[in-house]
Amino acid sequence: MKKINLKEKFSKFTDQWSPKVIEEMNDYQFKLVKIKDDFTWHKHDETDEAFFVIEGNIGIEFEDETIELNEGEMIVVPKGTKHKPYARKEAKIMLFEPKETNNTGDIINELTAENDQWI
Amino acid sequence: MKKINLKEKFSKFTDQWSPKVIEEMNDYQFKLVKIKDDFTWHKHDETDEAFFVIEGNIGIEFEDETIELNEGEMIVVPKGTKHKPYARKEAKIMLFEPKETNNTGDIINELTAENDQWI
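The joint structure predicted for all components is written out below.
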């Protein structure tokens, strides 16, 4: 058991849209990811997904609205909900989701990242 | 679906050691809690428990060590592990744990809070 400093973990990687696992809890994982520009539209049919903005600003497009989030804000995207995250400048976010959750959900493309990358 | 601002949610209550639910994800809940002085020794036999320090500094005593956490740091306490959180000055923390998790775990005393208090 050891504590985790989020800033220190963010300093360990530079690639974008490629979630890094920092800790597990039961069957879930906390992941850090740096994002910039547009992700791909996707959904997770099996699970909700939590987003926390640690640094910067992001937006998440949904089919009927766009929600912008600033540092210190979070949102839970319900399972089955199509969404497309984006960031105009690089932003640092934390995700919380079950182990084995694929970053691009039901879509496989060039943005699909390797799972279970620990830092 | 709506975003949640942690600071705004912390402004909605003043009591200590009484977790407030801000969001759910699958069968889990995100909870905010203000803490000061010492909590009670307890454990959660059924689940791990995640602590995030949002503002201030806290410590968690374990049977064989004490871990201090500052703003921007987190820890996951494994299920079955006896622990006693404390804060010398009031600190603001976020917990993540399954719904129905009792704040004092296997102990019932004057610090046991009502569950499922939403703000």
